[in-house]
Amino acid sequence: DVKVTQSSRYLVKRTGEKVFLECVQDMDHENMFWYRQDPGLGLRLIYFSYDVKMKEKGDIPEGYSVSREKKERFSLILESASTNQTSMYLCASIPHGSGANVLTFGAGSRLTVL
Amino acid sequence: DAKTTQPPSMDCAEGRAANLPCNHSTISGNEYVYWYRQIHSQGPQYIIHGLKNNETNEMASLIITEDRKSSTLILPHATLRDTAVYYCIVRVRDRGGSQGNLIFGKGTKLSVKP
Hints:
Shape of chain B: globular
Radius of gyration of chain B: 14 Å
Helix content of chain A: under 10%
Number of strands of chain A: 11
Structural class of chain A: mainly beta
Shape of chain A: globular
Order of helices and strands of chain A: EEEEEEEEEEE
Distance between the termini of chain B: 35 Å
Strand content of chain B: over 45%
Mean pLDDT of chain A: 91
Helix content of chain B: under 10%
Oligomer: heterodimer
Radius of gyration of chain A: 13 Å
Distance between the termini of chain A: 37 Å
Strand content of chain A: over 45%
Low-confidence stretches of chain B: 94-99
């Protein structure tokens, strides 16, 4: 089975801190995604990547950046964390190919910014 | 914006079939319909997907109307562990022709009750 692993399930950070959220997948998928999920707002796409060193903005990229130096790893970076970035962050991956491929999610990282 | 419309919530009695509707009236001919669910504080879990024909797996059945403008996810014998938010998603393609992200709406919160 495809496995998407997020490095931290729970994090607590202070305003202004730099935060790294790591995601690793073990099935050689080209596409990787970062979402955030907030009550009443559903899942919103922050950034995605089609391949190593490639990245595209999603719907809400402001305040975030990403890094894809290796195919298996997609990192989400909060340069200066703010309280409105308190959220559940979800990483997902999927291979290139037909529309029938399945997006696989990690367990999520719940970030609290104080 | 999500390309699907779902009721915000539904109840189902334990042991009965749960039928979750989804409207996707603007779906394109090559777009698949996916269903995911999310149990509280976990990442979304893939359930089933389809293009034109009805599909069944060990978790659920997917019924897609002939005009493909709507679908129904059926959990044949709902259990308390099926209580979750269920997302109906239409797969989009990005500008580059690679596989695009899944756009999640707010889903249907299914409550299975004893």
